[in-house]
Amino acid sequence: xxxxxxxxxxxxxxxxxxxxxxxxxxxxxxxxxAMGEAAVSLEGVLExxxxxxxxxxxxxxxxxxxxxxAGRGRAEALLADAFPALIEPALLGVQVDSSSTIEDMxxxxxxxxxxxxxxxxxxxxVPPVLTPDLGSLWARYTLNLAGLGSAFIRHTRPRxxxxxxxPVPAREYTGIIIIADERLPVHGQSTAARLExxxxxxxxxxxxxxxxxxxxxxxxxGKERGLVxxxxxxxxxxxxxxxxxxxxxxxxxxxxxxxxxxxIFGLVPTDPIIHREDALIxxxxxxxxxxxxxxxxxxxxxxxxxxxxxx
Length: 311
What we know:
alpha/beta
């Protein structure tokens, strides 16, 4: 793999305060020769269950030489200017599917750094605030990863799934829940692993026929809310008539088809494998196939894999 794509060093080298002190890498040890931390930093979390990346960009005012209140406007401008370069490494590491990250997509020419900048510009921002000690200024940014994934949904109409050759009786369901939160055998390997979230998982049956992928969803739905909803098991075992959270019931209805995954697949194990008989329940009923097109699919994964700290 090629080295990470980052413009942070270039950005920081250009962001010089009025007094000529570099924005980044000023020693915090009083100039004892150790490399100091950057005066602008980023921290946050990627939440697959919310399909969001939420981060704080923090500016160390002392490290920049900016004095308040006169320098407030300049400090806020530095935060805004730093954000695209700071968030870039986290975006590059987002898993698109079982074989590719955003960085891989850029190396293959399927996405550009300009596309990442445009996506970053769509983030929701909380106006900058000072820390209680007045030593730092920070702003919070939230990015909807469905918007990032929308760049890879290029079809104009969903691909039609091929119905089974032999008709199979199958009643209608209101949604599909695939439970894959335990260690499962990895197809083609003598090992087991846990299903990992990504933007575009595929669903396979036990004969390794494709059941669901990004080309089967209504493109408008996929661009708005993503391909699937990731949740932890407690979200489907509530003390309610349907055992579902209220917002989850709004997605998959009050009578979803619950499927236990039989295995997982992929270079990165992102794709659940379901039994052939479960796949036929979906494929033999046009209404159930419509659930795929409508994106009414939930993947239950291990709670610990739903959140990833940034950086």
